[in-house]
What we know:
Blueprint: H1 2-32, E1 36-47, E2 54-61, E3 67-71, E4 83-89, E5 92-98, H2 101-130
Antiparallel strand pairs: 1-2, 1-4, 2-3, 4-5
Helix pairs in contact: 1-2
Amino acid sequence: MLFRALSVLFLILGIALAFTTYAIERHEERMRAGAIRSTGTVVSQLKRSGGEATVPVVRFVSQAGDHVDFTSRYVGRYAVGSRVPIYYHPDNPSFAELDTWRVRWQGTVLAGAMSVFSFVIALTLVRASRTGSDPA
């Protein structure tokens, strides 16, 4: 009985995480729709409040020739002066972000992996309840 209840709980969690994975991926696609890829230069690092984590401040030149600075939402240590790939929206160049694999896929991969892990736990618990080893 306990294993079945837990299996249902992990099944629901897995489904929720699968929808979260889809939502993250769709959000990333919308963010990048119509964006221009370019290269920026890290001009400084800002510490996030309450910890040692830092986010880079990046400067780039838009297609219109404007110098634009933005602060990434993603934690990462980048050397000041280093060149980093970015994307930005031509109608609003201040809406920019790093264009690295980690930034692009981290949320999707983590949510997807947690979803699969939840499904595996649910399946394992269902099998355990069928073998009669469920501590009722």
